[in-house]
Specification:
By secondary structure, the protein is of the alpha+beta class. Helix content is 29%, strand content 31%. Strands 1, 2, 3, 4, 10 and 11 form a 6-stranded mixed beta sheet that branches.
Length: 525
């Protein structure tokens, strides 16, 4: 329904595609953009205005000139972090180090312009908002719930919300993608408040993400998550493109695999072929002037596609194994599997998932896998907008998702000179909040200054610990034995992180807290 605040939106954006749903006539409706597509490319390019971005058209994405792509996961990442991945080599435009060590994109036209990942994400939000306004026929279509990856840090959530607000959206809440997926299917709602354990399997263009969600009393808690950021639809497209390149070479006696532009064209045609094979038994790939003026046309059957990508399908199931192992569950402990992401439409992949769970878990796929997350987000947006007159505490009580930490927290006790210190894990990933912990660590007798550093740290991700805040104890007296530092760490449901430290013999103490984080530290709050 439309509340007094106007039409509400549910928004989902990924590395390559975005989707927006509005709540209209008592139901969520996924809306199409001005090209008639229900999903919108998350690639951006220069707009007609100087020094600004817009979302690229489908034709511009295929052409592949002057595009900024895959920016969502780059929010709050340093250039050093980005350069270690394959992201830079996949970019069409130049990526370089900008102010404060952050990555910037450079696009050259008559002039050269630089943009940040946040600029690109803002342009995507603006396009999705425009589509929603056009479909709703109302200028006030701006209140929204935005789906966010489980792995997003507090800083990334802040950056995402900032980008949305810059695009003119009013963010009611950030909700984790698995929670949105479950809401879309009504899992854990009135008819089945205790649905047990549910796996959300998300396979997009660039990654596979698997979340294990515990559903109890209508609340969702992400108990484990595992991702493979180097596996996704692009791997399928590359495998098919290599097959077509071999066909081209066999027919014309020319090897085009070292020509980046030709291979980019062939991958785009391979992607369309793969998408068609999700619903057809045979599809074609056609590219005009593929290489040296020669055209290319070929057909592929679904069985041939499945044979080419069979090893990749096997790899796509490994994150499920890893996530279940982290959760301490077996396949028989899972009651339902929700599949999301554009590549989840592949029939063979669905068959493999069903076989993996031995046919005992219900695989849900009735809602388009590209639209399911935006659909769930719009349902939550309607719930929040319908109760806008209630106070904050009542709204929090209505939440569908149990707030949990999206990243683990660890403490390092070091010295003023910044010397290396051992990390002591305090809260693992998915710890329900509010949470509180206390520990005691020792420093040397002659140490006069102690620095307590709280870091976001998830060992399974393989990424280095990221400092969040520091507490410094100064003028500590010399002692004959090691000094004991008592450290207390708490995370409130509002997202406020508090840390206090006290040297027990001298009673010297200090404490620091972060600013309140709207929607908290959790995947959903």
């Amino acid at each position: 329904m439309a509340s007094d605040r106007g039409i509400v939106l549910g928004i989902s954006i990924g590395s390559t595609k975005g989707c927006v749903a509005i709540y209209k006539d008592d139901m969520p409706v996924v809306v199409a953009n001005d090209a008639g597509d229900r999903v919108t490319p998350c690639a951006t390019t220069l707009s007609g205005k100087e020094n600004s971005l817009r979302v690229a058209t489908r034709q511009e994405v295929v052409k592949g000139t002057g595009l900024i792509q895959g920016t969502l996961q780059l929010l709050c990442k340093t250039y050093e972090e980005v350069s270690k991945s394959s992201f830079v080599s996949r970019q069409i435009c130049e990526v370089s180090e900008g102010p404060k060590g952050m990555p910037v994109f450079r696009i050259s036209a008559e002039k050269s312009f630089t943009f940040t990942p946040r600029d690109a994400v803002t342009a995507v939000f603006a396009k999705l908002k425009e589509s929603a306004k056009s479909a709703a026929g109302r200028e006030d279509a701006k209140d929204c719930v935005i789906a966010v990856p489980v792995s997003f840090t507090v800083q990334q959530r802040r950056a995402l919300q900032s980008a949305a607000e810059k695009a003119g959206l009013n963010v009611l809440r950030l909700l984790s993608e698995p929670a949105c997926a479950l809401l879309a299917y009504g899992i854990g709602q009135q008819s089945s408040p205790n649905a047990g354990n549910v796996v959300v399997y998300d396979i997009g263009a660039t990654s596979v993400n698997v979340s294990v969600v515990s559903v109890m009393s209508g609340l969702y808690r992400v108990v484990a998550e595992h991702s493979n950021p180097s596996l996704g639809g692009r791997n399928f497209d590359t495998a098919v493109a290599k097959h077509f390149a071999f066909e081209f070479q066999r027919k014309w006696k020319m090897d085009m695999t070292d020509n980046k532009r030709s291979m980019a064209k062939l991958r785009a045609a391979s992607e369309l072929c793969r998408q068609s094979l999700s619903s057809l038994n045979t599809a074609s790939a056609t590219v005009e002037s593929l290489y040296d003026g020669m055209d290319f046309q070929s057909n592929m059957s679904r069985s041939r596609f499945e044979g080419i990508c069979g090893p990749l399908f096997q790899q796509c199931l490994e994150p499920v194994n890893q996530a279940l192992a982290k959760a301490g569950l077996a396949t028989t402990d899972i009651s339902k599997v929700v599949i999301t992401g554009g590549c989840a439409r592949t029939p063979k992949l669905r068959q493999w998932l069903d076989s993996f769970f031995q046919g005992k878990a219900e695989v849900l796929s009735s809602i388009s896998s590209e639209e399911v997350i935006a659909t769930g987000a719009s349902l939550q947006a309607n719930l929040l907008a319908s109760n806008v007159d209630r106070d904050l505490e009542e709204c929090l009580e209505m939440q569908s998702e149990m707030p949990c930490l999206s990243c683990g927290l660890a403490i390092a006790l070091g010295t003023a000179d910044g010397g290396s210190a051992q990390l002591h894990p305090v809260f693992p990933v998915s710890t329900p909040i509010p949470a509180r912990s206390k520990l005691t660590l020792n420093v040397k007798p002659d140490q006069t200054c102690a620095v307590v550093t709280v870091c976001e740290h998830s060992p399974a991700s393989g990424e280095p610990a990221r400092p969040v805040l520091r507490v410094v104890l100064k003028d500590l007296p010399a002692t004959e034995q090691d000094k004991e530092i008592e450290i207390s760490l708490s995370v409130a449901q509002s997202g406020v992180l508090k840390v206090s430290a006290k040297e027990l013999s001298s009673k010297i103490s200090a404490q620091v807290s972060t600013e309140p984080v709207q929607n908290g530290l959790s995947p959903g709050d």
